[in-house]
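Data availability (excerpt). The following record was deposited with the supplementary files.
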Amino acid sequence: MTQALIMIDVQNDFCPGGALAVEGGDQIIAPINAMQDDFAVKVLTQDWHPLNHSSFADNHQGAEPYSTTQMPYGTQVLWPRHCVTGSDGANFKIGLNTDSADMIVRKGYNPKIDSYSAFFENDHVTQTGLHGYLQERGVTELTMVGLATDFCVKFSALDGAKLGYRVNIIESACRGIDLGGSLKIALNEMRSAGVSLA
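Predicted structure:
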């Protein structure tokens, strides 16, 4: 059995002081670094948005951050501008060990569609390429950590389970946004899908 560690979006804009800060986002760096040697395969994901991305509230006239709109693929939260391609906010948080990563998956670079999951864009059809890579490496089990529990971690975990992986979430190495109770909902969704919460 080959296990992979999927380290999700540990970027400046999701940490305190960032454009879309998750409370305590910087506190997960030490535990993530400590567990890296335990995995044969290590993958980083990175939000990577163009300035004109359709998920940014300021690209919709009169829209407030954290409101929602309908996209062709469903309901979309409109976020503050964050993780813009090439910006400091899109960089991995200083202190995170990125040298051990076998692969970096950049997601959300298509301006017309957001991408929470490490496996699929939000249309749930367009693949990022991660699944094919993991299959080539013989990976059967995933451990996921990172930001944010109730969005990118959740969607990655649910998609991983649908694709047939055994999926584990290390809650102490994740932090959530908790937008209108979304954290509790996310945890229940993951449990219902057979994801292990440790």
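Summary of structural features: Helices lie at 29-35, 130-136, 149-162, 182-192.
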